[in-house]
Amino acid sequence: MKTWTALRLAASLGVAALLIAACGSRGKDGTEPLAEGKLPEASKQPVSIKFFIDPAYLNDDEVRMALTEPLRTKYPHIRLDVVRPSKDTTLETLIAANDIPDLHISWNGALNYLTDLGIVDDLEPMIRNERFDLSRFEPAAIAAMKNEAGDGHLYGIPYVMNFQLMYYNKDLFDQAGAPYPTDGMTWEEVIGLGKQVSGKLGAPYKGLLAGFNEMRFQLSLPLVDPATKQAAVASEPWKKVFETAYRALKASPESDRPASFGTDRNVAMWAAKNRNNTLKEPSEAGLQWDVVQFPGFAEKPGIGSQVDAHVVYMSPTSKHKEEAFRVIETLTSDEAQRKLSRIGKLPALNDNRIVGQFAEDVSYLRGKNWKGVFQGKFGLPPKRVMDESLVLKFALQAFDQYASGQADLNTALRTAAEQIDQVAEQKIANRQRRLVP
Q1: Are 117 and 8 in contact (CB under 8 A)?
Q2: What is the CATH number of domain 164-306+382-435?
């Protein structure tokens, strides 16, 4: 982490930018407010918008298709300057060099981290002035962003959604003489079906491959309790997730061979986050597969995942906020969202006509049961009080110890809680010190 002098300067400049924006809501003579729904006329002089984008969020072809080309047509005075991350180029190094991008992309769970860096802006004044229609979006995505913020404000606009689902190998089910999985199955039903398939096929075939982290994500279980600021992993819901994942693991006989759905084709069902990009070559090589809804827990029926949205944030120091907002509008337009949907990215819009075109332009994804996968709902994520990636490893280690028999369930979770508390106490204290004026 770079020195916080630069970061505090960024935050201070952000406050100044908000004040300037507030003053800008008056007419040129400083007396008459603009009519509702009107932004100040954006300059038609050429403007360059610096946009920090990891290729994992939007690669070069996607940037061209969803941003560069439509901007050239609709707003030819706006030029997009895409900055890609590298070892020497991160948000923190850009802040330290006073070279802060106008826009940047991350996910909804990164809001606290980005707030600490001072590079998120409250978009609600601009949304109101522009009459930007939030009702077009998946309601859970907007609710999640406001929940992450804690103050009910909106600091980013989602443009696509990640999701969880279950893949299945048709050939293995046919060989086992077992029925294919269906939408709406519970974990208990899927575990039973996995036992049936693996029992018929034997090692090295695995009836079900599923991880506890996807299950805890499904139930929106925090690693650190937002109320107590202490580890939450010793709770009963966490125990249930560990026990369910353990039963899924033990549903198939042990094998020394690796288990993989696409490469080795020895996994009948794979419950996971979206991994469509790994299935192109296996599909072309003859893998016969389809998808169903992520298995559910009885206490949260129909929930496949908490909200995991890819989000565009605006830096408060941007000198071209109106033009930067035009870029956000372009990325979330029906046109861009339809294009993203057709290449296999789930739009953030609540529009069945656009979502229904999911993966239509991707030959190996076309014709799968996406309608069934997307019939589920997204859960509201927990309020994160720190970057969970810093402590997730302790929960992963705990499950490995439990699953391998090195520790019983309570001992494994208690050890993880102690490790999480040590890190969380320091990180939360450091964050509070940084936020003190």
Answers
A1: no
A2: 3.40.190.10
